[in-house]
From TrEMBL:
Start and end residues of each stretch annotated as Disordered: 25-57
Keywords: Signal, Transport
Origin species: Ruminococcus flavefaciens 007c
Signal sequence range: 1-20
Protein name per the record: ABC transporter substrate-binding protein
InterPro entries: Bact_solute-bd_prot1 (IPR050490), SBP (IPR006059)
Entry superkingdom: Bacteria
Pfam family, one: SBP_bac_8
Entry's family note: Belongs to the bacterial solute-binding protein 1 family.
Origin organism lineage: Bacteria, Bacillati, Bacillota, Clostridia, Eubacteriales
Keyword flag Protease: no
Record bears the keyword Transport: yes
């Protein structure tokens, strides 16, 4: 195991390199004065310090990664902080086996059945309960020492670890969360319309469904003859999650159909009301609308940079989907960032070590500072116009919205089940899976009829995992 002093030195070195990369990408280099950045050497003995020289490659730390994307940098991109730590401090290496997003689970099954080497796999909806309960993955509990769990490194995310525990063991261990469903809005527009700033209401604990609806009503009534909308984008899952409930819940032992939960019914009624009032713009967009005829744009944080570029003078800000007025916490819908140890892998220690590097990259203050500097780089086109940028104020707000002391993530286990639950059918609303139809926020739906039609489907899918 890497000595703690050596690891901390490696973290400092990795952060320094990331910061240097940020500086180089944000301004032109001078022709002769640029000096390489290296870690400062200490007087500690060689086996406890990291002097900036990468560790010797170790076959024990070589991982075969099956996914639809590579963890190694492409086209001259900077290495991620986690990969830099894994390679430089531990002598690790990640070998990518390419597959497609649609085929990755079938490819995994084929490789496992044939005995081909595969060690690590990305976490997404199909992993839990589907992949874990079908035996495609192995628990990580016996590697907690290698992951730093016993050192308290994962204490801040222990609730997320336990959320996915199966038969008393931990298969899915999120090292962080990301991409919460956000509402992007223009503070310039809000001010001109005499509407309160949602970010301020969030900070005051007053941002809830009622506040959002009253804002939309005021925005529309300010100019009743104009084509004005309250919200654009996909927000149905966020609305349900804001109640703290899930369509399919899991208590560590049993999957449960929650279609008849009154809190979910309230969320559906709220969505229906927004649709019935004509407040939803169904036009597909990938940025906040530049015409300023829509108050909120619902999406993950991925759209923020390009929304800023499309609206550089609109003073955009973000806020989570509003809190259910009857909920006890700020529950959110978001992504859970994790990697899976595959069944029969002989590289459990290596995968656990890589996960430790991901957790360190997500939690170490020096690494977070370097990540912020990278995130604030403004990307411009050849013409000099912005392609993407995020302001420091927006970045700091986003960190609040993924701070587990301020928000409580909800995972709907229905999103990890078979195509009857998650499939797209023939791309018509009635042919799509249960989760799509329940979370559809683009049109009104008869909730009582939908419950009667879909609840038996959910029961049938749950039964597959109970046998």
């Amino acid at each position: 195991m890497l000595n703690t002093k050596r690891l901390l030195a490696a973290l400092t070195a990795a952060a320094a390199v990331l910061t240097a990369a940020t500086s180089c990408s944000s301004k032109k280099k001078d022709s002769g004065d640029t000096q390489p950045v290296t870690a400062e050497k200490s007087s500690e003995t060689a086996d406890t310090t990291f002097n900036g020289d990468p560790a010797e490659p170790s076959s024990d730390m070589e991982i075969t990664w099956l996914a639809d994307y590579d963890l190694n940098p492409q086209g001259g991109d900077q290495r991620s902080a986690a990969l830099a730590l894994f390679e430089d401090a531990y002598g690790g290496r990640i070998n990518w086996v390419r597959t497609s997003a649609n085929d990755k689970f079938s490819t995994l099954s084929a490789m496992l059945d044939s005995g081909e080497t595969v060690d690590m796999f990305p976490f997404d909806g199909g992993v839990f309960p589907g992949g874990v309960m079908s035996g495609q993955f192995a628990p990580l509990d016996s590697y907690f020492g290698d992951m730093g769990v016993d050192e308290g490194l994962w204490s801040d995310v222990s609730s997320l670890m336990d959320m996915f525990a199966y038969n008393g063991q931990h298969y899915v261990i999120p090292y962080s969360i990301s991409e919460p469903v956000l509402l992007t809005y223009s503070r310039k527009l809000m001010k001109s319309e005499g509407i309160d700033d949602p970010r301020t209401l969030w900070q005051e604990g007053k941002w809830d469904w009622d506040a959002m609806k009253s804002m939309i009503e005021k925005f529309r009534s300010n100019n009743p003859d104009a084509y004005r909308y309250g919200i654009n984008g996909w927000f149905g899952q966020a609305a349900i999650s804001s109640t703290g409930r899930a369509v399919v819940s899991y208590d560590g032992n049993t999957l449960k159909n929650c279609m008849y939960d009154p809190d979910i019914a309230r969320a559906e009624a709220m969505i229906n009301g927004i649709c019935a009032n004509g407040w939803v713009s169904t036009l597909w967009r990938d940025t906040f609308p530049a015409d300023l005829n829509t108050l909120f744009y619902a999406s993950g944080s991925w759209s923020l940079g390009i929304s800023n570029a499309a609206n550089p003078e609109s003073d955009l800000m973000i806020v989570p989907f509003p809190k259910d007025p009857e909920a006890d916490k700020n529950y959110i819908s978001c992504n859970f960032n994790a990697r899976m140890l595959t069944r029969d892998s002989q590289k459990g220690k290596a995968v656990a070590t890589y996960l430790k590097c991901e957790r360190l990259a997500a939690s170490d203050e020096n690494m977070k500072k370097a990540a912020k500097e990278q995130a604030l780089i403004q990307v411009k086109n050849a013409s000099g116009t912005y392609r993407s940028f995020i302001t420091e104020e927006q970045y700091d707000a986003l960190q609040e919205y993924t701070d587990l002391s301020k928000v409580s993530p909800v995972y709907d286990f229905g999103n990890g089940m078979d195509t009857a639950m998650t499939g797209y059918g023939n791309y018509t609303p009635d042919s799509r899976g249960v989760m799509y139809r329940i979370t559809d926020s683009q049109q009104t739906k008869d909730w009582e009829a939908l419950k009667s039609a879909l609840s038996p489907v959910i029961d049938g899918e749950i039964a597959k995992y109970s046998n």
